[in-house]
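Example 4.3 (complexes with small molecules)
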Amino acid sequence: MKNLKTEDREIADLIVGEEIRQREVLEMVPSENYTSPAVREAVGSILMDKYAEGLPGKRYYQGNRIIDEIENLAVARFKKLFGVPYINVQPYSGSPANSAVYFALLNPGEKIMGLALASGGHLTHGHPRVTFSGKYFSSVQYAVEDNGWIDYGKLEKLVAAEKPQIIVCGTTAYPRFLDFAKFSKIGHAVGAYVLADISHLAGLIIAGVHPSPVPFADIVMTTTHKTLRGPRGAVIMVTETGLRKDPELGEKIDKAVFPGLQGGPHENIIAGIAVCAKEASNPEFKKYGEQVVQNAKALAENLLSSGLELVSGGTDNHLMVIDLRKKKLLGNVAAAALEEAGIVTNKNAVPGDPLPPFYASGIRLGTPAITSRGMKEGEMKIISRWVGEVINFLVPYPDLAVVQTKESRSAYSQKALDGIKFNRRLKEISGEVKNLCQKFPVN
Ligand code: DSN
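Answer. The structure with D-serine bound is encoded below.
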């Protein structure tokens, strides 16, 4: 960064600081990963200087001959990777991509059905009141059962009663396989469009360790920066099923992305997405995906053996959610204590959570990033011991009533957070974490 160091020392130093942080901790937020230097070079390139509103061959600015080649490569590589006939690679990220799908297919007030946030859904899947998807459309949400699993029989009844125009099968914190065939059968029975949001699962699907929605859903959306290991962005794919339902579905999506919701696409990101698609088509990527799941299963088993409870009892994919309710712990405090120990996760709601999302009763953690560093089952055993030790070290709240009202929850949480700052044992663990991380360099 020699130019940045000269031009803006403050930002250069902060970037170096963040690079060191990323190297020295266990990044276990399941939606995060490490991009390759090749992806970063494409994203940081001069492509960011070009405006290219429109699509390849039909732009609103001159000078896009090379940009068109780049975007066409991204399109061709993704079509091949997922086996889809139609794709738009321009969405800035997952939320704009989902918004574009709704904008393409629904009028304001029409009905979306998605998995509730506390059940592992996403804000853009129709979360009521505060989100675009819940305010401008009518939203009915489905939920997981108390045991953390989706009950497809109940879902079928709800869909039959509510008749949504779109059903979203997609998750951010659901540790079990999604049955896309069932989702599609249920949705198509009432004439709904089926949108599979595979943002978390895309890399696992490419690696063949999670079933693909492509034979079943009408539209498949994925972000590109999670298990796929690309830059922050998203793509919207239309399947053969979708095109049979509506041959103009692809063009409707294109128009919703631009000019409907976005201006100029970020062609530097699109180049990074093309590089990521090339990397994901290498045989090593299959091994990576397999190891992500093997690591998650090993981690889950070890956490269960250390007496922790997991939502749904384990995992089929790359993530798991520790349920802290019986331990009487706040998710925000547990996440902060884990960070003090060098283990970066996020607080997360559990099904039926009595606490609001800012506090939450769960910890979500996953293996995509640590697997990219080369860690395997042996390391999962060590990590689970640290996680168990940190969580068991925390002092439980005396009674749920104490954390259920706003003022006493905030006071209790602050006291608990003060208690973990500069704790000697947590610092010691963070040193042990650093030693482990040094053996698995980030590329
Ligand atoms: N924010 C992402 C996640 O962490 O799962 C979803 O978009």
